[in-house]
Amino acid sequence: MSYSVNAGHLWMPREAVRTFKNNSYPNVIAMIAVLLDDHKIEEYKLEEPVVSGSYFVFPKEMATDKIKVDFYQSRQFGWCEAEADGIPVGMDNSDEYWLEEYGWNFMEVFGRPLVEITNEEALKEKIIDPLLQLIDQKFAHKNK
Questions:
Q1: Total structural domains within the chain
Q2: DSSP state of 75
Q3: CA 137/CA 144 separation, integer angstroms
Q4: What percent helix, strand, coil does the chain show, rounded to 5?
Q5: Is 20 within 8 Å of 68 (Cβ atoms)?
Q6: For a surface tag, which of 35, 49, 76, 78 has the fewest beta carbons within 10 Å of its beta carbon?
């Protein structure tokens, strides 16, 4: 039997990710992710699986075709050591953990325990709507 079959934690996906773009905010990418604990890899620790919502703001001058996030950005919830209470935490390009390779200059992420997201209505209420509100608030604040 192959070693890799007995070491699923080394190859099993730790996250499922879906990104979204909206023409109203051309320099923003929103993301919804399901995160599992990373087992023994120890990039981050979670008490339970989490559904996270996040958005990434890129410089306005960046070409549209260059605006993208890699799947590993879904781990920001774990990296930021956020609580699964729906309260967002943020990072910008002045943060000591920000890397230029990210491309974005601001992000916010929040999460809820997976057990709370039992259907589409719960996903909309606890992840999608709050995520859209965060994005709208970010840009409403900038336009004042």
A1: 1
A2: G
A3: 11
A4: 35, 25, 40
A5: no
A6: 49
pLDDT tens digits for 72-81?
A: 899 899 888 8
CB under 8 A, 24+ apart: contacts of 45-50:
45/78, 46/78, 46/84, 47/84, 48/84, 48/113, 48/114, 48/115, 49/113, 49/114, 49/115, 50/77, 50/84, 50/111, 50/112, 50/113, 50/114
For residue 79, the enclosing domain spans: 14-138
Measure CA 112 to chain center: 12
pTM of the full structure: 0.86
Q: Identify the CA nearest to 45 among candidates 73, 93, 95, 84.
A: 84
Any idea what the CATH number is for the domain that residue 97 is in? 3.30.1460
Question: Are 69 and 29 in contact, with CB atoms under 8 Å apart?
Answer: yes
Question: If pLDDT is split at 50, 70 and 90, which confidence band does 135 have?
Answer: very high
Angle at 9 between CA 127 and CA 56, to 5 degrees: 30
**CB within 8 Å of 65: residues ≥ 6 apart:** none
